[in-house]
Design a protein that fits this description.
Mean pLDDT: 94
Number of strands: 11
Radius of gyration: 13 Å
Low-confidence stretches: none
Structural class: mainly beta
Oligomer: single chain
Largest sheet: 7 strands, mixed
Strand content: over 45%
Length: 123
């Protein structure tokens, strides 16, 4: 059964950094574009970033451009989300999944979701 596993979240002060990791069991990530989403309390899940198969194509939500960097290490079957200059509004549960990565970041219906990893930005 396909399952994504997110890790690397935590509590960080504003301006701090975290690196999230996305791994998968039962799946070679290098066969898919990988997406990062987040969901803050009381809000809908929103797209954050995505990376194409080779890693050359990426996309970011306007709110994180210039602060977040997505990358993939296919040898380790892992996708990373490097988050710098974190802000309180980045506080959310972060999820990864497979989907479409182009001008839009789209998780098709039925996309598998992991448990997510909590990111809290607070002083």
């Amino acid at each position: 059964q396909l399952q994504f596993v997110e890790s690397g979240g935590g509590l960080v002060q504003p301006g701090g950094s975290l690196r999230l990791s996305c791994a998968a069991s039962g799946l070679r990530l290098d066969s898919y574009a990988i997406l990062w989403f987040r969901q803050a309390p009381g809000k809908e899940r929103e797209a954050v970033s995505c990376i194409g198969l080779s890693g050359r194509s990426t996309n970011y939500a306007d709110s994180v451009k210039g602060r977040f960097t997505i990358s993939r290490d296919n040898a380790k079957n892992t996708v990373y989300l490097e988050m710098n200059n974190l802000k309180p509004e980045d506080t959310a549960i972060y999820y990864c999944t497979a989907g479409l990565c182009s001008r839009k970041i789209v998780a098709p219906p039925g996309s598998p979701w992991g448990q997510g990893t909590q990111v809290t930005v607070s002083s």
